[in-house]
Design brief:
The chain is built from 1 helix and 18 strands. It has 235 residues and is mainly beta.
Length: 235
């Protein structure tokens, strides 16, 4: 709402306003290279994704907007400035290069474009260099991505006949590589424990993953029966 909500409550004590009832986001903008601000009309929102301190929106014209905390380039505007209102991410504002899906991680962002390419910006590991604007994820070029989810710093993807995950240490097993295998990976790897199982959808919490597997055929049901069962009562 064009404000970070800060106010001085009393001497040297800063507090933050919150919104107690839904309030419409009134304006969407784009910025030129020389810093000029122009309103973007006719924004019809189709999807929203929320990170820890930033938000993404996908509109009916396949444009992406981002706002919030700009640290580590998670907003995709080539700079780390905070944005108080939704700002257009320029890369997807071209014919044939619009976005089809958006996802927000803890301090990063993803988009799948019309051609099926996966783009990333921000950071999953704060000790490595930040990606300040959307860049294609080369490891996944050519894969048809069905579903993607982000945890604090881990990512899991259902693509073609495979499940793929990666995330820097420390991890808590959410990558699904199995017992006696490395728990973390800085590069995308197939989850071998789910070999031959068609995953319809993936979701990820702060440090755990859930997947929905297809079981339409007898063969698929047999493969699922072979997986170990998790019983939370035994912990």
């Amino acid at each position: 709402h064009n404000s970070d909500g800060k106010f001085i409550a009393r001497a040297q004590r800063i507090e933050f306003d919150c919104e107690l009832i839904p309030r419409r986001v009134a304006i969407f903008i784009e910025k030129s290279k020389d810093g000029q601000i122009m309103p973007v009309p006719n924004v019809v929102v189709r999807d929203v994704a929320c990170g820890a301190n930033h938000t993404l929106v996908l509109d009916s014209q396949k444009r992406v907007f981002s706002w919030g905390f700009g640290g580590y380039g998670r907003l995709g505007h080539t700079e780390q400035k905070d944005e108080m209102v939704p700002r257009l991410v320029k890369l997807f504002d071209f014919p044939g290069r619009g976005a089809a899906q958006i996802y927000a991680g803890y301090q990063c962002s993803f988009a799948i474009n019309e051609m099926g390419g996966l783009f990333f910006w921000g950071v999953t590991n704060t000790s490595r260099e930040s990606t300040m604007y959307p860049k294609a994820v080369q490891d996944l070029c050519g894969w048809k991505i069905r579903s993607l989810a982000c945890g604090k710093s881990s990512i899991i993807i259902a693509a073609d006949e495979s499940t793929i995950s990666w995330g820097p240490s420390p991890t808590c097993g959410e990558l699904g590589y199995g017992d006696n295998k490395p728990k973390s990976s800085t590069t995308a790897q197939e989850v071998k424990t789910l070999d031959g199982i068609y995953i319809e959808q993936v979701v990820m919490g702060y440090s755990h993953s859930l997947v929905i597997a297809r079981q339409d055929t007898e063969q698929e049901q047999e493969k699922l029966k072979k997986l170990p069962e998790y019983n939370p009562r035994t912990i």
